[in-house]
Amino acid sequence: MAPALSATQDSTPQDSTNQFLTFACAGRMMAVDIVMVREIRGWAPPTPLPASAPGAMGVLNIRGRVVPIFDLAALIGQPEAAPEAGVILILSRDDADLGLRVDSVSDIVFAKPEAIRPIPHAAMGTGTHLVRGMLEKDDALIALLDIAAVRSPEDAERVYLD
């Protein structure tokens, strides 16, 4: 596993600096824009649903809202982790929540927009449609998750409405 990055390495936000929550999933360091993070939860088994979408683990009731939970490892083409392992990131997009099972949460990092690099076309493969770029931080590249590509609110609703 890649070494955890420390928020203190560049912890003074500057104008036009974004914050990202970094986490590990299937041996990869990834990040998501912190404004999309609603909460970080310890493992709780979701209620499985029949005929769920690939990577869908089921749903959880979180403060009266039914939230679909996905195994991020499965979505990026990696073997699913042990169900009881890891944490669940609850993310919010366009007033719809979704949960992602990841291995662990690392740090909050600060980065300017120019620190986000495009993915080289030659590196495209299974799961790269879920990555909007590579976040360059202290000689490391961290895959920046594209929440919109994980599931649109309509697709997330279909997991438990169909």
Automatic annotation (TrEMBL):
Biological processes, Gene Ontology terms: chemotaxis; signal transduction
PROSITE patterns in the cross-refs: CHEW (PS50851)
Domain CheW-like stretches: 17-156
Protein name (database record): Chemotaxis protein CheW
Matches recorded under SUPFAM superfamilies: CheW-like (SSF50341)
Gene Ontology cellular component annotations, sorted alphabetically: cytosol
Gene3D superfamilies listed in its UniProt record: CheA-289, Domain 4 (2.40.50.180), SH3 Domains (2.30.30.40)
PANTHER family to which the protein is assigned, alphabetical: CHEMOTAXIS PROTEIN CHEW, CHEMOTAXIS SENSOR HISTIDINE KINASE-RELATED
Pfam short name (any one): CheW
